Amino acid sequence: MSVSVVWFKRDLRVSDNPALVKAINGPYPVVCIFNLEPERLERADVDPIHIEWELDCLTELRTSLESIGGSMQFNLGQVTEQLSQLHDEYGIKHLFSNEETGLQWSWDRDKSVAAWCSTNDVEFTEFPTNGVVRRLGTRDNWKKHRDARVTAEQITTPMRMESPKGLTSNSIHSMEQLGLAARTLVDRPLPGEKAALNVLFSFLDERGRTYRKDMSSPKTGWDACSRLSPYLAAGCITIRQILHHTRRKQKKVKVNPRSKENLGWTSSLSSFQSRLAWHCHFIQRLESEATMDVIALNPELDGHLAREMDLERYAAWSQGKTGWPFFDACMRSLIATGWINFRMRAMLQSVASYTLWLPWTDTGLHLARCFLDYEPGIHWSQVHMQSGVTGINSIRAYSVRKQSTDQDPDGDFIRTWVEELRDVPKEHIHEPWLMSDEQQKEFNCLIGEDYPSPIVDEKTARKEGVSKSYSAKSKPESKLRSLLVYEVHGSRKRR
Questions:
Q1: pLDDT (tens digit, 9 = 90+) per residue, 119-133?
Q2: Residues whose CB falls within 8 Å of the CB of residue 322, separated by 6 or more in sequence, listed in order
Q3: What domains, with CATH codes, occur in the chain?
Q4: pLDDT digits 0-9 by tens, 61-87
């Protein structure tokens, strides 16, 4: 007997899956595999919440495959070992997979698989994912390729597949078997492909109406944002699927955009589509620079910045105990839920890099572990941008005070996540350290005891960080490297 193998990675879905459909339409029975590498469990950017989420989504995928006649073969170890075992048992003729953009370890893994296929005379076919273009030398004409990809017809969802006779799914390791324990997340989303579609439809049917207006606030963004990012990170849904349904909604709205039921949708859908484009743009950076977790896009600029670890500052920042209420609320909310809206993600990193002058490699790892929706291409691109180590992006040093009064004027979000401040009134909630001793007693919050004093003067430290960043950016070596960075990674609509 000969078989085709579909190697699932971060593409845990049956619909719009070219690798799966191509294998099913081929001449051989199909074996579906998923491999979890032990070294991945030890990576500094990986948290148990990521593994638990992935395994839960994989379990849902297994059910979907079984419903159409397939199965899922799970393996803990090296994927080439799993392939060798299957090859000995069945004889693999063709290996199918979808391209994955990841950090250097995943590139090395994929190259080892390609080498194994070559050695064992197994044909290996990979399919593009979303709008990311492999082996891209310049961003000229990238948008054209991206748009063609994400607007193409979706791959038909298979209804039946043939597996080798007698092959059934094996067990997927539990977290206990892996020796892992994930923190319990507040309002953790349901896993899997069906849940992803339900979240998308709830956004397009109702929640997304105020997307443009409400996406910047962590308080309103919880409902108004799409909340699709964990599903995109695991590949339970594709950009193409999301864009397809978004455009269907857009067509309906255009019929009568000023009707009561359609008010707000035009601008929100436009903003949402823009975000989908940026999603591909940032992952494309990692496609060209697989070491973005350790090497800045502009290493000359990064070298001039010379940030150093301060353990006291890092501890306060990472635990949400800086003494800045809104910042602390955002960090604590993120740790508790695994999610926070985009603007606040930018603020968390900006404060670390500019105000506290901490190394972006360390703070980036902490945030990676906090995000349930950790997507390396987006995450490390954002870390670089918000740390000012690209040379092609504006310096964005967020004022915590401004974000606090803009996004949470009444302090409701602060009181939700910073319990120490629950009794503090609106007029003091943003800067509680300015309260008198009598007021601190009255509102049950002694600064320095119940709630920390600000770790530094936020305004002064931020301005110093910005000044040092501009100085480093102006160095001739930094400017020269910036030209090269723009050629490969700069955003432009040139066709």
A1: 999 999 999 988 899
A2: 316, 328, 351, 452, 454, 455
A3: 3-127 (3.40.50.620), 193-288 (1.25.40.80), 299-488 (1.10.579.10)
A4: 999 999 999 999 999 999 999 999 999
